[in-house]
């Protein structure tokens, strides 16, 4: 018999102040095309000497992971596995290392940036920090990297191969990545106000970065946020296929669209691809409370981790903060939440959560 999978805690470092216990009470209103994270005081979490040698992605993840572990009340010895999803890994150190090769004519190179430039550096550094010698894996699956990590953890917990797993998604911004995506039109040309992204009427998205970690377990703790019911990803879907696939996904769980109390959508203001979300928002879920999140988090490969954080917080607090409301519909209680995300028409994901 498969065991249930519980999300016992959440941790987040994002373009909003999410590293404390608050829930979007004070929104960072900005007008830009690229959003950096609201960084915590890293000295409160990491010894300064160690922090100086860490890439930004590692520092963000360390804070997020520590907050998640503290929230669940688990100590270092209880973590059986660490699974991370990332689209770009520690791309900042990769860029610096390649630049050093060019600038120094391939001579006198220090190994630190090369060592920290691989995609699995984050998972490895967290494991070293807490002394976890268990399963350690990193998924690099573009915009479903985070979902791939969650799916791996879900299968292990259901089969009782592990009891407590630290799962996260992280990506960082660097200049070369931003300039490249500007060149190919993936980033908006003109600055957009945080709360007006959906009204921009232009192509491209507002890019950002972040780290989101969660403690998943097959044992329910008092800190539990939600139960992870199901997860599915699709590499490609045409607009005409989306509705049927969502319906089939819910049917596999014995549900219909009417049973969903809230749908969380990954609108990012790109007029070329937001139509996918419109299909659900104006179709089968038109009478369902709706929320969105990328106007606050920005767009990046693991931005769905922020959506996952938002959905868990809503189930925990039983309220939808005004900044993420997409419509004015409401429920007395929120029992079941569906999260749908895609990026530029590819890498679609569906995650179904239930109140703990």
Automatic annotation (TrEMBL):
One of its GO terms (biological process) is fatty acid biosynthetic process. Keywords: Transferase. The keyword NADP does not apply. One of its GO terms (cellular component) is cytosol. It holds the Pfam family ketoacyl-synt. It comes from the Bacteria. GO terms for molecular function: 3-oxoacyl-[acyl-carrier-protein] synthase activity. Residues 45-218 form the Beta-ketoacyl synthase-like N-terminal domain. This is 3-oxoacyl-(Acyl-carrier-protein) synthase.
